[in-house]
Design goal:
Structural class: mainly alpha
Largest sheet: none
Number of domains: 1
Helix content: over 70%
Shape: elongated
Order of helices and strands: HHH
Radius of gyration: 15 Å
Low-confidence stretches: none
């Protein structure tokens, strides 16, 4: 099990109280990686280090409606 899959397993079990087989955990890790990269790219294009933290939530809300 690679590091990303272990992280997905820890989050599923520790935060969600869920257990998945290794195949599904690997799928979840890949899905999270894709979503995380999309969020990072969207935020990088519209936010700077000095922006108000609420700006991030506002951008994510606007993007989710698109």
């Amino acid at each position: 099990m690679d590091e990303k899959t272990k992280t997905a397993a820890g989050i599923a079990a520790g935060l969600q109280g869920l257990k998945y087989d290794e195949k599904r955990l690997a799928e979840l890790a890949a899905e999270v990686e894709i979503l995380n990269e999309a969020v990072r790219k969207a935020a990088a294009q519209r936010l700077t280090f000095d922006d108000d933290p609420a700006a991030f939530a506002s951008i994510m809300a606007k993007e989710s409606r698109s």
